[in-house]
Design brief:
- Helices cover about 10% and strands about 50% of the residues.
- With about 90 residues, it is mainly beta.
- Strands 3-4-5-6 form a 4-stranded antiparallel sheet, covered by helices on one side. A two-stranded antiparallel sheet has the order 1-2.
- The chain has 1 helix and 6 strands.
């Protein structure tokens, strides 16, 4: 079984807030744009759109992000198996 790098869980939209605080941003939205299942390895590749604010300046940004998710049969939960988006700041 894979060891999850849990940053998000689809069911609850939980976020690793300590990691986001290091970016000095606040995520304001997360929208799933589309997804494609991969039946060979039981993963899903998803396209997501994040909205976020740079805390120090109040500037608003959006970033598209490709994510790879996998399902843990024992826990009955989806886990993110890709890195966080590269949140750009000015």
């Amino acid at each position: 079984m894979k060891r999850p790098r849990v940053l998000f869980a689809i069911e609850t939209q939980r976020v690793n807030w300590r990691l986001l605080m290091a970016y000095k941003i606040t995520v304001t939205s997360y929208d799933l744009v589309g997804s494609v299942p991969n039946t060979e390895d039981d993963t899903v590749v998803a396209q997501a759109l994040f909205g976020y604010i740079q805390n120090e300046t109040g500037r608003v940004y959006q970033i598209k992000h490709t994510q790879v998710w996998w399902f843990d049969d024992e826990l009955k939960q989806w886990f993110l198996d890709s890195d966080m988006p590269d949140f750009k700041l000015d």
